[in-house]
# Entry
Amino acid sequence: MSYLSTLSSAYAEIFLLVMASSILIVDLFVTNPNKTLTYILVQLTLLSCALITVTTHEPGVVHLFNNMFVDDLMSDVLKLLSYLTVSMVLVYSRSYLILRGLFTGEFMVLTLFALLGMMVMISATHFLTLYIGLELLSLSLYAMVALQRDSAIATEAAMKYFVLGALASGLLLYGMSMLYGATSTLEVTAVSDAIKHGVGNKALLVFGLVFMVAGLAFKLGAVPFHMWVPDVYHGAPTAVTMLIGSAPKLAVFAFVMRILVDGLQPLVMHWSSMLAILAVLSMAIGNITAIAQTNLKRMLAYSTIAHMGFLLLGILSGGIDGYSSAMFYVVIYVLMSLGGFGMIMLLSRQGFEADMLNDFKGLNQRSPWLAFMMLILMFSMAGVPPTAGFYAKLSVLQAAVGAGYTPLAVMAVLFSLIGAFYYLRIIKLMYFDAPETHIPISIEADNGLLISINGLAILALGIMPSTLITVCAVAVQKSLMLQ
Amino acid sequence: MIFGFSLLSVAIWLPIIFGVLVLATGSDRNAPLARVIALVGSILGFLVTIPLYVGFDKMTSAMQFVELHDWITHFNIHYHLGVDGISVLFVLLNSFFTPLVVIAGWKVIEKRVAQYLAAFLIMSGLVNGVFASLDAVLFYVFWEAMLIPMFIIIGIWGGPNRVYAAVKFFLYTFFGSVLMLIALLYLYIQSGGSFAILDYHQMAIPMTAQILVFIAFFMAFAVKVPMFPVHTWLPDAHVEAPTGGSVVLAAIMLKVGAYGFIRFSMPIVPDASHYLAGAMIALSLIAVVYIGLVALAQTDMKKLVAYSSISHMGFVTLGFFIFNVYGMEGALLQMISHGFVSGALFLCIGVLYDRMHTRNIADYGGVANKMPMFAAFFILFAMANVGLPGTSGFVGEFMVIMGTVKINFWYAFAAATTLIFGAAYTLWMVKRVIFGAVANQHVAQLTDITLREKLMFIILALTVLGMGLYPLPFTEIMHASVSDLLVHIARSKL
# Structure
């Protein structure tokens, strides 16, 4: 077998890199201010990536580049979902960004590079590749937050994001270096083997673990490492907020799986108790603080923090049930997050951001259909059946109770009860209050179609969740090395 | 079977499909069409449940009209439907009320008609789902989903303080439900991965766990019933809800909580039920006596009937937790009768409110002079609420008291005081509203009930009297299920 054919598992990444670089050049010659050609090329690239990922899928787990990179079912599923998410982000944000003069070639190319970073994170099995993927993603996002350079609030958000993000990366690197010092390897599975065979100083390992978990918590936005989340979500242009709040969560999920489950499973008793604290704090602070918000983007930021708490609860419950429930949760979360930020962009106009809660007043009278979609999204975020959000919570709670964490599960449902209050408030504003303005809502056809698909998908997954749950369970089962 | 679909599925999905159709008529320009579709849908929804009664085998306590399909295979969750002699009655009761609610809102609701009617139709289907589910997750999905239409009904079409009432209603019930979810998950794990309610009935559970599970279920069901001290959402919700909302709340939603006790709490954790029966009886008696006194002090008619509902539901929970046939069957009859009577009373108050736009008792007086026909119906339903022999209200209360005497005379004595308090607050209200001289010029301008309103009241009056004079059709269908349930509860699961 020639060397080239062994690369087939990484074709999607290679193709994306080539295309991103070419589009950067092609874009120089696109004179149309709406960048239609660039946009079409980007969407075609995403479609081709999906086709490549599907056709190069191989049963079982394929390692390449000396165990630095892996192709398994979980990575393929997550990559396909990432393409879909990024593609949806671009559809949602196109007209929004065009109105604000931000729909530039750089935006799209940076999006593609961010996607490449996510793909590397998803497939990496070596501390170095993990770190490269993470940095590629983060650096692209920092730049995108700062894209609106004459907005003070966006610049502040970018600065904060960059400084805190760099700190988090530093923590991760520090943790990695300690683990390397203890086990003298950077390969995730080798680290796991080494720890299992008692190699390395236990104190050093746990110390490294603490830094790793702190770094991961930063990237996830879990309390007490959440300070950047509300400011960045609020300050960034909504299209960028949507990107930050959606696809990268899939990648970070894979990242956590690779490091904690594949790499540090032998230290599970240490990290699961750390995650328990992070999870409870995130659910508590996220849900309680969200109540006080008047800006929808900030509210969704705090709601994200609470959702990440739930995600951590799934992960710390462990086993196939725990990891697959966490994966299911993150997929559903991404779908809801897309819809939520999409709705803000849909209601925005030239020179007007619909990001205050009061902008949703009386939406049912202005557009019953959009109000209904938002109703589904909000009930899903609150975890009320028959929406997908309920099954996400159900599967995580099932894993938690199954693993004997019943008190944590009880706390989780009580905090989600608190969470229900602020989601209900949006519904109250939309349905029970009179509108403040009667300016007709004009939406592009593609956006209207997408938000309908997005909302109805959440309802449909709420009625027929079986397939997606099974996919997540099989993906986790086939990909992770579980003891 | 109807066109190849099983009856229970039709009973659940037909109203929901019609609800979506109604929703599709869109803006208020098409309101007449929306009303017609809703009426057709609700009547069809009732007609398809009649074969459930006719074709029901009264001899067995087993689940009938069972349907079983895979739903979420990974968690072993099934689309599992079936009814026994207890739940079939509530499916019928619920479907019976939907056309009445549609008729009640026919003229009164003028803004966003389609959404209003659709919410009721969809809720009707979901409530049927609650009563027919034999899978715990399916039950939970229907149970929670029915909050959504009710939340919207109270919030959009309700009174001045509707937002507060709607949010309180939602959060109260949601709070109870999430704890039940944890209990269900515990049972799922303990049973080795089954969500079938009937499996839980056979499962051995240690005492501590039984008590915890009982408490979790109690939180969910007691809030819905509602039992003292978690009843405070009900008066708010009732007062603010539009007439149709109040009717469904009182007639149907409260029954869902009581139904939960006999489908979940008692058969799944019988030992804890026996152990905690004293507390349950105490709370029930407090509801009967104390809330009865509270009702006496009300100045708002809807609030008065709301408190009277809580007091009557106290009878239901009392009947359950004395564990004998009289108590259980009496409680079930009381649930059905209370559905008819409180529904009818709320419709009566709605009729007055539509004309006067006030529910204050003090604003009325001498209504009988202007609305004699209405007064006759109102008094009939008030008498049924009091529990006059010959009306449906009598049978249930009498049986529960009889069952209670066998356990403890003083319990029965306390429960029987309701006959006095109930008569006091109901008749006093009737006296102040209906009788006397015409109180003011608003009352003087009242017009008697229209054909549409007459139709609703005649149907309800016949039912109330029929059930009071000849309760056998109701008791015989539940008898086998009730006696088997009692045998089951008497067996320890430790």
Remarks:
- Strands of chain B lie at 64-72, 77-83.
